[in-house]
Amino acid sequence: MPTINLRNVEKSYGGGAANAVSDLDLEIGDGEFMCLLGPSGCGKTTTLRMIAGLEHLSDGEIQVGERKVDSVNAGIFVPPEKREMGLVFQSYALWPHLTIERNTDFGLRLRKVPKAEREERVEKVMRTLGIEQYRDRYPSQLSGGQQQRVALARMLAVNPEVLLLDEPLSNLDARLRLEMRAELKRLHNEFKTTIVFVTHDQWEAMTLATTIAVMSEGRLQQVGSPNDIYDRPANRFVAEFVGSPPINILELGDQADGLAAAASRYLSERYPSLSQVSSLGVRPEAVRFTSDASEVKEGSFAVPAEVAGVLPTGGSWIIELVAHGHKLFAVSHELPEVEAGQSVTVWAKPKALHAFDASGRRSQAADALFCPPKVQ
């Protein structure tokens, strides 16, 4: 499968509006499962449509393997039907008057694939997706999850070099979404197709992708593995967008008071060189609390707090804490032995802290101090 390269890509619809996509440089590797992740209006679907050829670039170029498929400067534009890509929309777009088998082999018939090969490919993909028993039914006779499988089967049958998915699971209920995520992961492992998947659902991206590209307001914020995105967010937008419950953020500086002032004192006393840190974040999963202050690990950021509430979510608990008048959230995967009104000590290890400068960028200097390399 080919590598897809987007270089200096921009998309503007004119009329004085801000660019839908600005200065986008992105490489999607051979056989990669890339998720374009971001809130509504961030440019992720526009990017997918430009890769597919449904939108013209305003500037830049897109190259698939050794072939340029869109280049403003070179005057090149390869139409969608010649890009060897499959596109699955949010709506299933099935032909209501055709059976499931005829919907599945529709692309193969358009390409005039010989009957024997067509039947073999359709049989294999229908069996893989578990829809062979519905071959003689019509779309209206299937559930939403089954229709989604048919839409995927239709694309996989033509064996596209690249599979483009535009929020294909958003119309499904929670159980079916979970099943289809597992199905997509398995299909990617089996077919090794390069997949570009658009979603605003962070958990969908985290569970499916080999690589995530986070976008905001038409600009790329960070590209990395799911673990990179979660554990080392490049800036505050990524840190606050990815994670549920969201990351706890403390605004530091001269005007800081309460908990933020305590965090400022901690940094100035333990890491005096970090004068440029403007805000500090800690994931709820990394927040610890104890009624015995002697359990706090040496060198940790620790403050007294009060438990405001314990919220069960089924399998885990969210603990609401108030420290120096500021709310903090912690997550526990074991039944917490605390109750509302109880006094505790809240603490976090230095390696769990995320430091950002005034522009919102991650502080590399802080990372070096919080997580010093181990001496061999």
TrEMBL record:
It holds the Pfam family TOBE_2. Keywords: ATP-binding, Nucleotide-binding, Transport. It is found in: Cell inner membrane. The keyword Transport applies. InterPro entries: AAA+_ATPase (IPR003593), ABC_transporter-like_ATP-bd (IPR003439), ABC_transporter-like_CS (IPR017871), ABC_transpr_MalK/UgpC-like (IPR047641), Mo/tungstate-bd_C_term_dom (IPR008995), NA-bd_OB-fold (IPR012340), P-loop_NTPase (IPR027417), Transp-assoc_OB_typ2 (IPR013611). PROSITE patterns: ABC_TRANSPORTER_1, ABC_TRANSPORTER_2. GO terms for molecular function: ABC-type transporter activity; ATP binding; ATP hydrolysis activity. Belongs to the ABC transporter superfamily. This is ABC transporter ATP-binding protein. It comes from Paradevosia tibetensis.
